[in-house]
Amino acid sequence: MIRSKTRWTVASLDAAGEEQAVNLARELSLSALVARLLVQRGFGEVDKARRFLHGGAEGLYDPFQLKGMKEAVMRIRLAQERREMIRIFGDYDADGVSSTALMTFLFRRMGLIFDSYIPHRTLEGYGLNINAIDLAAEAGVKLIVTVDTGVSAVDQIAHANELGIDVIVTDHHEPPHTLPDALALINPKQEDCPYPFKGLAGVGVAFKLAQALLGEPPLEWCDVVALGTIADLMPLTDENRVLVRLGLEELRKGDKPGFRALAEVTGIKLAQMNSTGIGFGMAPRINAAGRLDHAKRALDLLTSSDDETAAESAFMLDTLNRERQLVVETIVKEAEKQWLDKCLACAESGIKEPSVIVLAAEGWNVGVVGIVASKMIEKCYKPTLILSIDKESGQCKGSARSIAGFDLHAALTECEALLDHYGGHQAAAGMSLHVDHLQQLEASLGRLADEWLTDDDWIPGTIIDLECRLSDASLEVLEQLEKLEPFGNGNTSPKLLLQGAALADRRTMGKENKHLKLSLRGDGKLLDAVGFGFGSLSDKLSDGADLELVGELSINEWNGQRRVQFMVGDLRVPHIQLFDRRDAAGSDSLTSLQKLIRKEEADTVLVLVPSPVWLDAARNSETFALLEEIRMVTYEEAATEEQTCTKLVLLGRPPSTDKLAAVLRFCPGIEALYAMYGESSYPVDKSEKPRAASRQDNQKHTSEAPLSRTDRKHFGHLYQTLRRVCPIQEEGAAERLAVMMGWKKETVSFMFSVFLELELIVANGNELELPANPVKKELIHSQAYREAQRREETEQILFADTQTFAGWINQQMDKTQTLTSQRGVEIS
């Protein structure tokens, strides 16, 4: 048994949904899996599904449905007529840079007089600031158009108004209670804005302004929209889906020098660009400029008109991104140390560790603290704030990331009295405050988390779209799944629960064997699966284990061949695993055990030995000195009380299946069983009865077919032979009949003992003869026969093939769980 890393939730369809899926599959020529997925995502109607799969620019909304759009268009056209100076005021992240680039393209096409301004993240911070507005006034700016910022700039816009500068705000962040007095404010999230889609990125709002001013959607700029939308983790649904899909098509054309150069440094071919390539290749490099230097470098790249300039800018951004990675790594280590120290202090004081992580230090780069917060969530799974402290002023600036169920923006709003400034949304936010308020902020946020979150919310969850089998993993199905792209927030790449997969083979790969490659069998086919970061599980998977895997289907292209593979995100083994070491030499059992069990796992292991003689011999061995922390007991000792172990080791052949089953009933928590019995140098208790032939014994006697000692027809065959040859000299009778019948002498001797016990043959002097009028008796009435039958059943199980033995073990554990449940019901 291996437990999953996350809490799985599998989506399901009711009867009506299943009917819709069947209809979709028929009408749109889709596989059952893809049709069910569309229904689950709200596209069960044929026309709706068709628009989702194939819809284009006709799915864009009228930009004038946005509140403030009419006023903004009129004011920009007035500036065009008056030849007024306009300043685009953007933000330093990828969405802000993309928005500024798009507005640059627009104003260039309109022939406006303009420039752009992006604040320095460290020196100026987020959003409009008084000094930047003063600089605009000095430059003769009459109109400021904000992109991806401004909805919270109440004081700053009031200052601009006093200086005679009009401000048009285009933003998509959550509006505060008090809105700025801008000439026009375009934000679909305004309470009284009728726009039908609220999920636009900042660059998406800028695109709608461009659409309104030009009278048609400028589809050639959708590539910039795709970059900002994906980078800002906006939902890829509704209008965003259309914009990003069209943007990817535009990107693949490779018309813009900036994107060509960016693709070159990321190592991704533009012709194959998808949302993953943007999110993990392009976006980090655009963001790196604002994090470590100035976002203008990224803006210059996106707006460049020649390849040479673009290549230089892309190279610089790639260098900055590498530096950013090193900075993040350093801060993460310092943050982990600070959090560990805080937890240890809480433990020493006997108090609960904070429910929300709030960490701050001098010198931490404000530009990367959001990434650090995300890394801490990966490790600890708690809402996290990472802040940098200014030594002179005591001011802290930072970023926060959240977990599912905890609304960061709402939580910060509850704590706004402690904050100088904050903004963001449910999953991510930025804030500034004085260092003196940090402790109180930590306590307040922790209290809110405890109130708002349930026990399940503290466990990372995985939402699974569909269950599938290996037969679903085909190129045809994968090609249909690709029609659901672009994937991202709100339209995630389908998470599948792969069932009916048995482990055929596995190996580790990559640096330090960190990754795992599996070969799975089921439904008459083989499928490769790759788990990045799962290399440590290689030794914890037993041969033939039944696996349940969560992940995604993907294409593996090699030497011109395209094959489907499964990318593993999580996995579990729902049954107890049998690690079959029965063919290992018994004299090496303790050494093998030492190799199997790590020292830190000693308290999870219970070793069973057949008898006290075995126990003494094992404990007196030199090898056991290295294993002295491991509990080692006999079957009788283990079957007296419940055992707290997850690994059970059978060292030496179990005395019987009955005794093994009895122990299993007292080990409800075991996840793995190691069978390590075979020939051994340890002494056997002489009081033990000789065992029946093992599978190894039978292999040694290839001249004789496998013979069951308790098969009735064999007894009948021998009895008929005795009727022909009796009376017979008792001495040597077993050897003689064994030769006649082609059996072993020991087998014939055993049958004689049963016949004698049942008085079916009798000894008369030196001879064996049949009684004249024997009383008919069943073989089961013989104690020797019953004992042999039990021994034979034990041998059949203990020396069965791995799959059969593993099945028997899990049957016993199922019985144990049933009994435990029944006891629980009786107690309740």
Question: Can you walk through the features of this model?
Answer:
Keywords: Exonuclease, Hydrolase, Nuclease. GO terms for molecular function: 5'-3' exonuclease activity; nucleic acid binding. Residues 682-710 are annotated as: Disordered. It holds the Pfam family RecJ_OB. By secondary structure, the chain is an alpha/beta fold. The chain has five domains: 7-41 and 465-572, Beta Barrel (OB fold (Dihydrolipoamide Acetyltransferase, E2P)), CATH 2.40.50; 59-217, Alpha-Beta Complex (inorganic pyrophosphatase (n-terminal core)); 354-449, Diaminopimelate Epimerase, Chain A, domain 1; 585-676, P-loop containing nucleotide triphosphate hydrolases (Rossmann fold, 3-Layer(aba) Sandwich); 696-798, Arc Repressor Mutant, subunit A (Orthogonal Bundle). 43% of the residues lie in helices and 18% in strands. It has 28 helices and 26 strands. The protein has a five-stranded parallel sheet with strand order 3-2-4-5-6, with helices on both faces. Strands 7-8-9-11-10 form a five-stranded mixed sheet. Helix 6 (130-138) packs parallel to helix 7 and helix 11 packs across helix 14. The model is unreliable at 679-706 and 822-828 (pLDDT under 50).
